[in-house]
Design brief:
Shape: globular
Number of helices: 5
Distance between the termini: 38 Å
Order of helices and strands: HHHHH
Helix content: 55-70%
Low-confidence stretches: 100-107
Radius of gyration: 14 Å
CATH superfamily: Response regulator
Number of strands: 0
Number of domains: 1
Strand content: under 5%
Largest sheet: none
Length: about 110
């Protein structure tokens, strides 16, 4: 499975969270990144060195805070958000920092 650059993904997630005024723990934010990378709960738990149940609980909190039903919707929402940023002219990862203004490439 091809993985997106972690720095770029981190900037997208930071911007996504900031624009929605979400209050996420560091673990919840990290779990959003792992969902976007395609990790299942068990894989994420193994990576983090914590229990599967802890990851499940984190994911449930993320789903509730984002008002979604599952990891697929989280990933789809992040993809849509990143495509909208690109459509607004933000093509470089540095443009994705929280609070960065949209720039248009239109003539």
């Amino acid at each position: 499975m091809a993985q997106i650059d972690v720095d770029t993904l981190s900037r997208i997630v930071d911007r996504y969270v900031a624009e929605r005024s979400l209050r996420l723990s560091a673990g919840e934010r990290l779990e959003i990144m792992r969902m976007a990378q395609g990790y299942a709960c068990k894989e994420s738990a193994n990576l983090a060195g914590i229990s599967y149940e802890t990851i499940r609980a984190r994911r449930k909190r993320v789903y509730r805070k984002l008002s979604v039903d599952g990891a697929t919707e989280v990933t789809s929402s992040l993809l849509r958000f990143s495509l909208l940023l690109m459509a607004a002219g933000q093509r470089d990862a540095r443009d994705l920092a929280p609070g960065a203004e949209a720039t248009s490439n239109a003539p």
